[in-house]
Amino acid sequence: MPEFMIYALIAGLCLTVMTGPMGSMVVWRRMAYFGETLAHAALLGFGLALLFSLPTTLGVIIASVAIAILLSLLSRNSSLSSDTILGILSHGSLAIGLVLLSLLPGVTVDLESILFGDVLAVTSQELMLIGGVMLIVLPLLLVNWQSFIAICVQEQLAEVEGRRVKLLNNLFMIMMALVIAVGMKVVGVILVTALLIIPAATSRRLARSPEQMALFAIAVGMLSVVGGIVMSLQWDTPAGPSIVTVCAGLFAVSMLLPQKT
Predict the structure, then answer these.
(1) DSSP of 3-17
(2) Is residue 163 helix, strand or coil?
């Protein structure tokens, strides 16, 4: 098997180990728009990284984390609804990022790979970065899993139980920012939210517990990555959209199955 394909498979599989459980929480809390906002912020981070001659992945992580923190502050101190704030941050950061990229002198940017990803071009350094983020996110998920579940069920009740809801919400947003930042390389800015949402939505119909749903979402994501990469190599289709296409196909199949109660 060619080295680039091994890197692509490892990168995609590592990403789905994170997007499975985190996407499940996004579905439970109806935060799909939040994921999209962070994905759009990633494009702004990419432009800022080029402007200040920083590593692009570092710029994406900084911008995504900054938007997550800003969203948390605005949600607590604004009269606007959360979806309105998300809309402003999402489209604003996307537009600023695109304008910034167009104004950078002497810089040629492969906008298609940014928007739709290029998992087949993952390097060993990028693979190490994805693995590093996974080693940060997974322990945090395991340690705080029950608290995250409690917040998903009823935030006010979780606070009464003594759980540090605000701190956990901020932690979850930062973890999401990290996952989306490294996921951008695999499926791109436009499609990274789909890899969070669709496997979780697929597994929701089949699972009987939160843990089952997270594990099924990981499995669906892994099948999508393998199937999408094979499709891309077989028919020369874009890898990122191919992964999401397989993912959507698995969701369609799940709709034909009886839902678990």
Answers:
(1) HHHHHHHHHHHHHHH
(2) coil
| Cβ pair 46, 59 in contact under 8 A | yes
Closest C-alpha to 259, from 211, 196, 194, 213: 213
Cβ-based burial of 234 (10 A; exposed 0-12, middle 13-18, buried ≥19): exposed
CB-CB contact of 199 with 220 (8 Å): yes
Q: What is the pLDDT of residues 59-115, one digit of tens each?
A: 888 888 888 788 877 877 767 777 788 888 888 988 998 888 888 877 777 777 777
Check residue 53 and report its DSSP letter.
T
219-250 per-position pLDDT tens digit? 999 999 999 999 998 998 988 899 999 999 99
Find, among 73, 88, 114, 112, the residue nearest to 33 by Cα.
88
C-alpha to C-alpha distance for 129 and 133, rounded to whole angstroms? 6
* Residue 28 phi, psi (nearest 5): -60, -40
Instruction: Please enumerate in sequence order all residues whose Cβ is within 8 A of that of 89, keeping only pairs 6 or more positions apart, or say none.
Output: 37, 40, 41, 67, 70, 71, 74
pTM, full prediction = 0.89
